[in-house]
């Protein structure tokens, strides 16, 4: 049974819709962006109605993702402020990856790794957006050197971002019981106690 009245709410419907809008835009942007990056990926343009449509849609999807991420950024930024416990968690993350997570410092709603990922995502989003505008020649006819700089930054940051999202998705799958937080909005008490004990105490009022 996936839902139990004792489960804890982690995300409301608006937060989930916001997250999945960003996620879906990201996948579509990665597919169309790869098609422009290398001829081997060009067939991916068929998913968008051909090369011309892929080129038209890609920047509009980018603007939609940037706006949706901006909403997510302001919603989550205060929850992602690094604390000394998070820094300690990060310095000992190797222990947890090798299977011993019993002595890790207690974490709030997000752990040090999620917080570092959050700020890295925000920086990449900003760079992707600005460099993407440099390349949007249909609306911004900038000097060719600016367009060239935009092309390098845009492709490098997109590659980094794709790698980061792989890590984000892998971590969500690796920690069992996490994906449902973004699907149903809830997590079990056992999940919260094991992975985010300080958050568990805060939402349940238990010591
Ligand atoms: C497309 C596949 C994706 C999946 C399966 C996925 C899954 C998840 C899950 C399960 C959580 C909840 C983690 C928790 O509550 O501990 C989460 C949180 C989050 N996700 Fe994703 N996600 C995806 C894409 C993205 C993308 C593309 C972005 C942004 C570029 C993103 C940004 C975030 C942020 C900011 C959080 C909140 C964590 C924080 O604030 O530190 N996600 N994601």
List the SSEs and their pairings:
Layout: E1 8-9, H1 13-37, H2 51-76, H3 84-91, H4 93-97, H5 112-135, H6 144-174, H7 179-183, E2 186-187, H8 189-195, H9 197-204
Antiparallel strand pairs: 1-2
Protoporphyrin IX containing FE (HEM) is lined by residues 10, 19, 22-23, 26-27, 69, 72, 76, 80, 110, 114-115, 118, 121, 165, 168-169, 172, 178-179, 181-182.
Largest sheet: 2 strands, antiparallel
Report the CATH topology name: Fumarate Reductase Cytochrome B subunit
Output the number of helix runs: 9
Strand order of the largest sheet: 1-2
- The CATH architecture classification is Up-down Bundle
**Shape annotation:** elongated
- Portion in helices: 55-70%
Judged by helices, strands and strand pairing, the structural class is mainly alpha
Q: Please write the string of helix (H) and strand (E) elements.
A: EHHHHHHHEHH
* Count of beta strands: 2
CATH first level? Mainly Alpha
What small molecules does this complex bind? protoporphyrin IX containing FE
Mean pLDDT: 95
Structural domain count: 1
Q: Distance between the terminal alpha carbons, to the nearest Å?
A: 27 Å
Strand percentage lies at under 5%
Per CATH, the superfamily is Transmembrane di-heme cytochromes, Chain C
């Amino acid at each position: 049974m996936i839902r139990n009245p004792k489960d804890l709410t982690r995300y409301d419907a608006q937060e989930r819709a916001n997250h999945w809008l960003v996620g879906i835009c990201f996948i579509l942007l990665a597919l169309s962006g790869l098609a422009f990056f290398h001829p081997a990926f060009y067939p991916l343009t068929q998913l968008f109605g051909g090369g011309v449509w892929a080129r038209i849609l890609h920047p509009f999807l980018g603007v939609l993702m940037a706006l949706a991420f901006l909403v997510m950024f302001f919603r989550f930024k205060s929850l992602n402020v690094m604390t000394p416990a998070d820094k300690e968690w990060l310095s000992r993350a190797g222990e947890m990856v090798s299977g011993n997570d019993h002595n890790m410092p207690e974490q709030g709603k997000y752990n040090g790794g999620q917080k570092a990922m959050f700020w890295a995502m925000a920086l990449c989003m900003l760079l992707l957006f600005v460099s993407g505008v440099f390349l949007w020649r249909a609306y911004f006819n900038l000097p060719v050197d600016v367009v060239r700089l935009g092309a390098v930054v845009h492709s490098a940051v997109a590659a980094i971002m794709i790698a980061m999202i792989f890590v984000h998705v892998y971590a969500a799958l690796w920690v069992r019981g996490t994906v449902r937080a973004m699907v149903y909005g809830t997590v079990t008490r056992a999940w919260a106690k094991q992975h985010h004990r300080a958050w568990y105490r805060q939402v349940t009022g238990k010591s």
